[in-house]
């Protein structure tokens, strides 16, 4: 399945977002544990899915940069960036057919997300999957397309 919207037109983004959330909800109904879709943190962060390519195992989501996410210097707090990344990598695993739980996330901050930024976009990709683990990489970029965060995550696959 390949779904992509490269436009920022709210109607197209909302349609794709709703399609992917519906697919996640359908999968959640079959999960071995109760799941809340979308997770409250995804909603709190204001996340919207903007592209999904199942064959390439990639998912892209966009998150607004809000004043309440700033650290004392005025930049977007690193933990909020990691939350946005985790809320892209986790759903990617689920959309690709397995419920993965993050067990490790290694993060490299490349440049700050300044108050002038309107949003960050996170692109996650599954790079390897075994019977028990998935390795997921993610890149967060600012509105100018510049990398702000690089991330590698390990996701455990419940038996």
Number of strands: 7
Radius of gyration: 15 Å
| CATH architecture annotation | Roll
Unreliable residue stretches: none
Mean of all residue-level pLDDT scores: 91
CATH class: Alpha Beta
How far from one another are the termini? 25 Å
Number of domains: 1
Please give the order of strands in the largest beta sheet.
1-2-3-5-6-7-4
Largest sheet, in brief, is: 7 strands, antiparallel
Reported by name, the CATH topology is Thiol Ester Dehydrase, Chain A
Order of helices and strands: EHHEEHEEEE
Number of helices: 3
Question: Can you walk me through this structure?
Answer:
By secondary structure, this protein is an alpha+beta fold. It has a single domain (2-156), classed as Hotdog Thioesterase (Thiol Ester Dehydrase, Chain A, Roll). Helix content is 28%, strand content 35%. It contains three helices and seven strands. The protein has helices at 10-29, 40-45, 78-95; strands spanning 2-4, 48-53, 58-64, 101-109, 119-129, 133-141, 147-156. The protein has a seven-stranded antiparallel beta sheet. The longest helix has 20 residues, at 10-29. The radius of gyration is 15 Å and the shape is globular. 32% of the residues are buried. The mean pLDDT is 91.
């Amino acid at each position: 399945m390949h779904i992509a919207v490269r436009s920022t037109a709210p109607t197209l983004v909302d349609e794709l977002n709703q399609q992917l959330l519906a697919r996640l909800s359908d999968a959640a109904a079959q999960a071995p544990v109760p799941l809340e879709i979308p997770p409250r943190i995804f909603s709190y962060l204001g996340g919207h899915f903007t592209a999904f390519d199942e064959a390439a195992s990639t998912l892209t989501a966009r998150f607004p940069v809000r004043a309440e996410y700033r650290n004392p210097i005025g930049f977007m707090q690193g933990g909020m960036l990691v939350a946005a990344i985790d809320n892209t990598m986790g759903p990617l695993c689920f959309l690709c057919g397995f419920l993965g739980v993050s067990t490790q996330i290694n993060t490299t901050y490349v440049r700050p997300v300044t108050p002038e930024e309107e949003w960050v976009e996170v692109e996650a990709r599954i790079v390897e999957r075994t019977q028990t683990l998935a390795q997921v990489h993610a890149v967060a970029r600012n509105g100018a397309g510049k990398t702000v965060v690089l991330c590698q995550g390990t996701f455990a696959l419940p038996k």
